[in-house]
Amino acid sequence: MTDHVYKLIELAGSSTVSTDDAIRNAIETAAQTIRHIDWFEATEIRGHVVDGRIAHYQVKLKVGFRLET
Q: Which one has a higher pLDDT value, 4 or 51?
């Protein structure tokens, strides 16, 4: 097994649908420009409330991607 080195970044995804959708939006958008994304960790979940209803879900993520050797 080869040893790997990872770089960590923080992302914040948002969605009007759900926290899962906010995570998918963040990862899929980042994957357009970052190769070798291997994992994520949700570190914060928050939302925006309008008139007593959830308007947006927001999820802060730590994302690890493998550096090329």
A: 51
56: containing domain: 6-66
Q: What CATH number does the domain containing 53 carry?
A: 3.30.1660.10
Residue 59 CB: number of other CB atoms within 10 A? 25
Burial of residue 32 (number of CB atoms within 10 Å: 0-12, 13-18, 19+) = exposed
- Residue listed under structure tokens 């050797």: 69
pLDDT in tens, 40-60: 999 999 999 999 999 999 999
Does residue 35 surpass a pLDDT of 80?
Answer: yes
